[in-house]
Amino acid sequence: MLRQFSLGTVGLVVGGVMSVAGIYAYTIGNSTVNLVGFFYGIPILLGGLALKSSEVKPVAIVASPSPETLKLRESQATSTQKQIRQDVCRYRYGIRAHLDEVLERLELSPTTEECPKLVGLYEQVTATPDLPQAYSLVLRFQTPLIPWETWLQKQEKFTSFFGPGIIATVSQVEGKMVDLHLTKV
Question: CA 108 to CA 86: how far, in whole Å?
Answer without folding.
Answer: 22
